[in-house]
Specification:
Blueprint lengths: L21 H27 L2 H29 L11 H31 L6 H33 L10 H30 L4 H28 L6 H11 L5 E12 L2 E10 L5 H7 L6 E10 L3 H4 L1
Parallel strand pairs: 2-3
Antiparallel strand pairs: 1-2
Helix pairs in contact: 1-2, 1-4, 1-5, 2-3, 2-5, 3-5, 3-6, 4-5, 5-6
């Protein structure tokens, strides 16, 4: 058979991953804003002799790197979406970028914890007035970044509905969002600690707030690692989705699903391998057509076997 005549049985494997996602543009804006604030804090820390500001500036530098990884993941997934070397497209690049960001969050939380405990044991002098001004400015910048990234996340919520089992958020965007949330949290805790040190002489509040921040960031990191690792390791899709597929295929009462594998291959999209038996088997396309488009399945392989005595087999 001529190659062109097979085209109608082929399908695209880009699965819309070649489209520019809204989160990509928002992430680039946040990178620019965060990098600018990073420079301000580092220069202020050097000029005013404040280790607190310098440390926070260096911490923001680590987040600029993490956000850069997020931006790279977006661009890489988009540019290689039609590369045939990726069996199911580049959707998992999104999860890989998020996983990397989660690892960096964990490293940051560990650093925060160690540094905070060290300062509890050996307190350091802080240029309070200058540190408070820059910390407030940092909170404003981080708050704006949270709004920029969070607005896109809420927009996805609105369009995708409440069925989170079938439609995952953009993991890459989630990672970027939590990074700027971590920045905002550390700025807020720093302000509380610095004000306490200035007006009540509670110098210990600075490292104590650092410990609190480290614990919260570690929890965020743990959640992200679990979510993205499930995608990268091809964990089975949620039970609700699997049940919906079984019910759709077995609706005629003449067929039974014997083997079902459903896994995520990108944000909100799944691949499935389905084996079934039927008394009077239909064509695979018939069973495929029974699966609702809202399920998010974009790549389906169906194996059909005849089983005349289906009731006995069941």
């Amino acid at each position: 058979m001529h190659r062109d005549r097979l085209d109608k049985w082929r399908h695209d494997h880009a699965f819309a991953q070649d489209k520019r996602r809204p989160g990509e543009s928002r992430t680039l804006i946040v990178i620019a804003v965060t990098a600018l604030m990073m420079l301000v804090e580092i220069l202020a820390g050097v000029k005013f002799g404040s280790m607190a500001l310098l440390a926070d500036g260096l911490h923001m530098a680590s987040h600029v790197v993490a956000l850069g990884i997020t931006a790279f993941a977006y661009a890489y997934a988009r540019r290689h979406a039609r590369d045939r070397e990726f069996s199911f497209g580049t959707g998992k690049v999104n999860a890989l970028g998020c996983f990397t960001g989660a690892v960096l969050l964990a490293v940051f939380a560990l650093y925060m914890g160690i540094e905070s405990v060290s300062r509890l044991v050996n307190p350091v002098d802080i240029a309070l007035n200058q540190a408070i001004v820059v910390a407030v400015l940092g909170l404003a910048v981080n708050g704006a970044s949270v709004f920029i990234l969070g607005a896109d996340d809420h927009e996805h919520d609105h369009h995708e509905g409440d069925d989170h089992d079938h439609h995952h958020h953009d993991h890459n965007l989630k990672s970027a969002y939590l990074h700027v949330m971590a920045d905002a949290l550390t700025s807020l805790l720093a302000i509380v600690a610095l004000l306490s040190a200035k007006y009540f002489s509670w110098i210990w509040m600075d490292p104590a707030m650092g410990v609190v921040g480290a614990v919260l960031v570690a929890r965020w990191s743990y959640g992200l690692l679990g979510t993205t690792a499930a995608v990268l390791l091809d964990r089975q899709a949620p039970d609700q989705l699997q049940l919906a597929i079984r019910d759709a295929i077995e609706q005629d009462g003449d067929s039974r699903v014997t083997d079902l594998h459903v896994w995520s291959i990108g944000p909100g999209i799944y691949s499935a391998q389905i084996a079934l038996v039927a008394r009077d088997p239909a064509a695979p396309d018939e069973y495929r057509s029974r699966i609702p488009a809202s399920s998010g399945l974009v790549h389906i392989a169906i194996e059909v076997h005849a089983c005349p005595r289906l009731d006995e087999a069941a």
